[in-house]
Amino acid sequence: MKTTFSHLNDKQAPTMVAVDAKPVTTRTATAEARVDLPPAVCTQLDTQAPDGPSGPKGAIFQTAMLAGIMAAKQTGQLIPLCHVIPLEHCQVDLAFDGPQSVRIRCTARATHKTGVEMEALTGATLAALTVYDMCKALSHDITIRHVRLLEKTGGKSDVRHD
Questions:
Q1: What residues make up the domain containing 131?
Q2: Residue 120: closest CA among 25, 27, 26, 29
């Protein structure tokens, strides 16, 4: 475990991490978020729609997938000190995990000198926020929880959380 923050220089001022000496490798990361929906929302969703559940604002999962991909592509603009990484692939999957919980997974991939964990986390988070936005007309008792990195590969160290 590192004992120093990589985004602080020797004067403890914020700085972007220098990646110029790192090798270019294929980097992947998968992140997850969960959205808990109250019964009042679940009973009003059209879960039989061909593109996934639909609510007052339209196709929930399809809209959240697009939002997650768009967010992952913009991570370097949204989070200070993140490198702008040209993603080669980004996929967002949503599925019910029980009757009232939606599991969101975002996988990002790039061939670059730095990892794509933040892109995957941003994609999963914005997809979760989009589910909230698409359902809030039915209830505000929606909870977003457990945003976390599941896996990263291709850098100095691989990580896998089950």
A1: 25-153
A2: 29
